[in-house]
Amino acid sequence: MHPFTYTRVSDTREALNAARRGGRYIAGGTTLVDLMRETVERPEALVDIGALPLDKVTVTERGGLRIGALVTMSEAAAHPKVRTLYPVVSEALELSASAQLRNMATIGGNIMQRTRCAYFRDVTAACNRREPGTGCAAREGFNRTHAILGTSASCVATHPSDAAVAFAALEATVHLLGPDGERRIAFADFLLPPGSTPNREQALRQGELITAVEIPALPRPLKSGYLKVRDRQSYEFALTSAAVALHVRGGVIREARVAAGGVGTVPWKLPAVERHLVGERPSDSLWTAAAAQAAQGARPLQHNRFKVELLKRTVERQLRVVGGTK
């Protein structure tokens, strides 16, 4: 681990000033500290924001939920409003990590975490995400766990967050605070696909701080849930996952929100699946037909072709769980 300075701040003004001087924000530190230990990340200064007043879950005026950036994963998953209104978020959080990590890791840090690609974490391997212009060892290497959607010639790494898949499905908004004031950005625009600049992973401006993630009010009744498929049931990252939320009224699907994880360079919204569902009556045949659209645009690699079919089956299974069968 390389030397660094450490500053603990007590208000957002201090935090922004410290970041302006080149500091990196840290709260739970469950990802950043690991990367520093492996010398993948080498920040010269850390700004501890753990004491900032960003640790509340509140109901918005329109009936949505605003989850503070410093709410821990455990706190968010257990919050009565999250569990009642958006169980897909609770389930995604509880399937994300061990209890010990969930007690430390924050919502803001969870959506900011970097890929688990082994080549990214191996400082001797070529990785455009870690060191632009060096190449992508995963493209010709062992790429079983890598992405099949949203890839580019520069990078095929998946985004590891389960909670981010739920937020993407629900079309959440990220609240930011920076030197130029407050702004909001759609979750779909916050995490960036690699393109030719895989080292730029979020749409953050210099010195900006995540203050909250807001889930919009959605029509009721709303049923939702999260399914994670992995190599083992204990702490493991997804091979595929599916976040599903359905509003059914009068026996007809009025709204559908569906996203996938473990298969995309970012949490992958599935609009073709959603379009196939809206206006239809729940049925076994509908779930099968809708899920068949899930892998549109997939570009599998040598070792992860199985993910195409696995994605379809994962989406179909979770549609059945959330929507029921007849």
Automatic annotation (TrEMBL):
Q: Which PROSITE patterns match?
A: FAD_PCMH
Q: Using the record, list the residue span of the signal peptide; answer none if the entry has no such feature.
A: none
Provide this UniProt record's keywords sorted from A to Z. Oxidoreductase
The FAD-binding PCMH-type domain extends over: 1-220
ATP-binding in keyword set: no
> Which SMART domains does the UniProt entry name for this protein?
CO_deh_flav_C (SM01092)
Name of the protein in question: Xanthine dehydrogenase family protein subunit M
